[in-house]
Records
---
Amino acid sequence: MDIMEEQDWLSKAHRDMSLGRHQDALSSYEKALEINPENGHSWEMMGDIYYELGRHAEAIDCYDRVLKIDPGNLMARYKKGYTFRKVKRYEEAIVALDQALAIDPDFSYALNNKGYSLNELGRYEEAIAYFDRSLSTNPRNIRVIASKGIALRELGRYEEALKCFDRALELNAINGFVYYNKSITLRSMGRGKEADACLSRINFPSGMHHNGKED
């Protein structure tokens, strides 16, 4: 193995990334991996680039290569799960996120993304349990608070859902996503005027579904 040559390619990949030249960076990492195919960090960086390029299947393949080299790599397991969630493969996301949580049960990013995946599958009680675990250490996470509110709303627990949305708005009073979901909850409670007042506070963000869930 030519360690110096590998380092040269890795340095070039880093420069390419800093300049936004993703394809060049991929080529540089490939050259480095020809020299040292057991460099898990290089595989992980390639996975990150593929993710940024929207090439999700290739990103997952790279994270799998990392995990063959280092099965205990927390970030590779999390990134694999996150990528599965982003392409709506929620069951597979949960498997990968569970593996990350087996390494670190308090890893908030994995807790959050498992909760989001469970919400998408309609497993709201389970989702709430994961949101609560996350909020026990990160109580100001607006996305998690709002997602818990969505789960509570879907279970018909409207008053509890409103408390979540109001708490999220205390932390960020101009969050359109939260206002939108609060309006859905109010309308479900027959409080149409209050729902309309919430809607008047926002412009609809792109990528928002009719049920208030984000892409």
---
Amino acid sequence: MRRARWMGLAVAAGLLGAAAPPSPPPPPEIAIPQPRVFPESITATRDGTLIVGSAGNGTIWRARPGDKAATIFIAPDSSGLVSVLGVFADDRHGLLYVCSNGRRSDPTEARDRAAAIRLFDLKSGAPVRNIPTPGASRSLCNDFAVAPDGTAYVAETLRGSIIRVRGDKADVWIADPRLAGADGIAFDDDGQLYVTSVTSGRMFRTGTNADGSARPLVELIPPRKLDRPDGLRHIGRGRFLLAEAGDQGGITLMTVKGDTVTLSPLPGGRTGTTSAVALGKTSWAVAGKLRYRTDPALAGQDPGPFAIYGTPIRAGR
């Protein structure tokens, strides 16, 4: 009788165990093995390599497919980079675009020298070009979009402009008070250029006229206010990955059809995400934890470790 009872309990336990769904695997994560990195931007190459820029110390990090930890690709000691915001891989032309800026605490002369649009060889990391940012330290190079012909467009945050880069020349392509806080910038398949403001949460569309000038800005109204919209990357068919760096932010799958914008948050997005990029069906992102650099209440506190984190590209809540 006792044996039968134990056998019954064992069978019941087995059935319960079989019915329990398997635990989901932990989200993929690639360590950035250095403190106070404050990664602000991420880009990817066609072969799946991820590249991250450090706002904290100017290091450019790289993680190849399968890496568990990123390694230093371009060191600040050799490059002269001080603080890096946007990074953008232009596979077509073999270039890595980098937004170089100075530290706020540095003298104006040092910040002016650091304010530049830097180009590096995408494979070797060798320096290719150093183009002073128009406006020097009164401007802030934040991120890039590159047209098929190699012309680069820069979201410039402080003066509310888009800078155009052709060859070794950079000029202000469009300036408008509505672009104050310009941060995220990306082309779609049709050559339309989208830009978001991290300060106002507004979103605009422009494009290029036949003579190369900018078309008038058109404001697009999302279904909700964007939460400190930061990095913007086009992933095809009118869809974009939008990083929202606010307290309620994360990664948003944004779709634009005409003047209509729809927003679908991705599950697993982290507060303070500053940039995200797509590789296949996975979004790889960085949470810059930039409040530890800007909020006096957090000054000197440990922001904890930094990482590149992955999440599936599918609509969430």
---
Amino acid sequence: SPLLDAVKIVVEMPLIELTVCVLELFEDYHKYRQLK
């Protein structure tokens, strides 16, 4: 299933890359909140 594939990708991702992704998502969310 797509969900399982996504989980597999996240698990296989290096921790640093995962952290960067999370930070980018957080920044995008913050910008989105400021626009409202």
